Amino acid sequence: MSADNNKSADEEKAEPRENDKCMDDAYVRTHKSPKGMSKLGAQVTSAVSNIPALVIVLLCVLLFVFFIIIIVLAVQINQGQYSATTDRCLTAECLNIASQVMTSLNQSRPACDDFYAYSCGGFVSQHPLGKRTRIALAEVFEKDMFHIVRNAIDLVPSDEWETSRSKVKRFYQACMEDGSVTKGARSMFELMLRKAGGWSIMRASSWSLQSWDRDFTLQTLIVDYGVTPFFRLSVTPDVHGDPTRNAIRIDPAGFAFPSYEYYMDSAPKHYKELIEAYKEFIDKVAEQMRDVHPSHQTSDIADYVVSYERRLLERLDVSRNGTAKFERRTVYNLTHTLPVIKWQRLLEAYFPGTPISMEMPVYLTHPHYFDSLVPIISTTDTHTLNHYVIWRMVMKYAPHLNQPIRSLYYKFMQKVQGAEDINLPEEDWWEQCVRHTSHYLGHAVGALYVNQFQEKEPAIEKAKEIAENVRKASRRTVGDVEWIQNKWQAKEKITNVDIKIGYPDSIRDPRYLEQYYKHFIVKLGSHLANVFEGEKYLRTKEAERLSEAATGSIDELWTTYPQNAVAQYIYERNSLFVPLALLQKPIFSLSQLKSLQYGSLGSLIATQIFKAFDKEGLDMGPTPQFTDNSTRTAYMEKLKCLAGNYPAATATGEQIDGSRTSGEAFADIAGVKSALMAFKDAEDSSEALPALDLSPEQLFFIGYAQSMCESIRDDRIINANATSTSAPNRLRVLLTVQQLPEFSNAFGCSYDSPVQTAKKCNVW
Hints:
It is a single chain. The protein contains 36 helices and 9 strands. The protein is mainly alpha-helical and 764 residues long. The chain folds into 2 domains: 92-144 and 455-504 and 558-757, 3-Layer(aba) Sandwich (Collagenase (Catalytic Domain)); 163-426, Neutral endopeptidase , domain2 (Neutral endopeptidase, domain 2, Orthogonal Bundle). It has a 4-stranded mixed β-sheet with strand order 2-3-5-4. Strand 2 (231-237) and strand 3 (246-252) form a beta hairpin. The chain crosses the membrane at residues 53-75.
């Protein structure tokens, strides 16, 4: 018998039973305490028995205080400017939404002075950057996505093998295993280098000056490894021929920085610092990989690479060589004007399922760049060419190599992004692993994400309704503008925008995904091997599209994944994609008031629609827009006005290059105006939120601004200024509301307020 069973009867009586704790006072009085209980013990027992009562009293006090606060707020509301409605939404959902809106606001800043600070001051203060260089809603949603996908991966049974989700699990697990990332990465990379012809600084890669074949190396890098020296191959609709068929597209590629301005002798100090950081990165990685004694040809690799990239970008520089074009040529034209590349052999290797004829159409972006490649490549010595093309391979795979090289890569990227401490990577390694997995197995990861998303079908249907209402309003916006002569063509382009919201139905079918990823081999034990396999697989899927109709496969129908929280307008297709990840607060929810739905999601969709009329979208497609002289001249004048109207971008007064971003501003203004018009058509005049003295129109503009809230470092803005066609969100919001009289009317802005005194460009 155990010791517990040997308790004496007195001990057993002295220990309170669970039921005794619930007895009332009468029961206690009729059942006296054992004689052995001390006075102190009785006091303790009494105190403990009173704890529930104390908790109840405390809760009552807190509820009373909360009730007083609500009354005070209600009084303030009734005394406010907006008292047109007495019916305020008081549901739990509305209380939650009101709280979210108020949390992001900074009501100490007048809306008519700085609407962005008024709308987003709370968001910025609640999202300190720390080791990051930017936090906007896209980053917040992405962080949530990382956690959702990681949890979904953990739930996939380990004994599954051939399903798409099991491949997701193995890819992620291989990335997370320390040994998988580091063990054998060097030897595997050397093997791949040998297959590509080798690198002169690595004896193990079997480099030979006499036998190195430039054309063979280029083809191996592009076809087998997904590397893009000089250019990138892809597939696009034959927009200037038969839009129902696909054609080959070739874009300039192969540079660390996308603009010649970084490399110029007269470049600003911060760009020169980035170039020096780039050289240091190249030199340190080369030292990590070198296994031969440095010589004249192998010691100054950074100088070779940077000088060569500068030569290439000098030819690409749009400011020197005219505006970018999207030019239709043929394979025959390529082989005769650019004979330094064995085009037919390369294209046959890249697109093995499609016969490559000399008459096949090929689209070049920046054709002047490709016309300059012949003198550059043909006059470059073998060592420099070898350094340049192999460095592009090293740069691509650096995030997947051993830890010292990964560390150097992320330090360099942090420097480029303007990080405060370059030694702290923006993301933890597990987040990087989710990102890599999503990149190579996007549809399968999307299926895991979609399965975890709540109320997705009703949300998608409501979002589609908003999109159609916004489309109708966008046509009216064009119709109301006097400076556009041929309004019919513009309206037709808006009508024909193919809007897709949510996700493709096929990813919900496990059998479809199993077939889609059938030939993608994923193994445990080597992350780098999986990445090489993933690159080859992505290239295979891209190549398959060339032989398909332009509206055929899932990759044609959906050019993004549901887990990516970024809307996309595809110029060549006149298509707009709104992924499922965007259909969450504060961008959208079913419980939001219409003012917020249209202010955030409606404005986002309408802005994307009007990208059809920015500088890139005007001439894209079978029917160019604004072709008559008067309309095109007026258009360019309005862009010029917008370009010079941005506020300062940083605390030190740095200005952005408005000529690069004015097309975006043109679309922003039209988009918000159209969304407001659509909201008024659908408006419930009595809608209002509790504790917020705001009219529906004011809530609309706040919804728009809060969908654009971001924290961003000044150095990131400065570093991107030379190439970015997108302004910081603060500038986008301020310029948009300055150009919309509807905003000033909604907030009653005085004639001398900053929003009223700003120059008006009368765009829409």
